[in-house]
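step: validate -> pass
step: tokenize input -> pass
step: predict -> running
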Amino acid sequence: MKQAISMFSFTETTDPGWVFDHACRAGYDGVEPVMSESGYLTPATSEREILAMARQARDMGLEIPSVGVWSLWENNLVSDSPDIRQKAMYIVQKQLEAAHLMGADTILVVPGYVGCDFASKPECIRYDIVYQRSQEALAQLEPFARQAGVAIGIENVWNRFLLSPMETARFLDEIGSEYVGMYLDIGNVTYIGYPEHWIQILGKRIKKLHICDYRRDQAGIGAFVDLFAGDVDWPRVAAAIAQLGYDDTITLEMLPNYKQFPEASLYSNKYAFDRIVEMIDAAR
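step: predict -> pass
step: emit ->
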């Protein structure tokens, strides 16, 4: 079982070399870069620059298992605006290209939102329309994913959409491709359910896992806390991961700048991360 740190844990303009260095010191196996409108990885980043970033990580002994994305909040994949939908499709295609160049096998994609608290000008789109548009968009992107050899993993991400594991399983099965699956965030789902249930129900549809912890007696973004400081039942989650037979990378995602020294999140959560992996191994 390999452990990675997501660059969602830092700002969009963070120096990737700085993150790689701290990830290496803390004992992680990999790092998840994140595409945004500006910063170290954007749709305009050249192939040469992407390969250089991947080589820098590799030279430090780090893998790049997946590539995330910031900019699908401002560019909703299911927007009422055809121009925004087209831009969102382009962003995902560039994600796939970058992931292929970096040797990653999965990208994290926000599959569109019904409503959103994170966008500067959020839309509110009817649920059934989001469902239809999202499936259509992912079906159109599937050939690009297949050609790149990179799976699209849709994330449960407070988008007021796909609110149960059964609905999510049906949504993915209706698309019916091994290149479109789930990027399950264990902390994100805790406010509406139990992550172990999502793991058990989604099963092999899961492409990658994010871990963080969440306190149900708090509210909003401030409820995300260090591993073992929240309400995730880690022994049950570990047992579900072991039962699934998941042996891919698990990636830690903390809040950007959640502390005065953001790199502290890599170190302060590593012991807990190790204990979770030990629980998974013991449950096999």
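step: describe -> The chain has a mean pLDDT of 96.
step: cleanup -> pass
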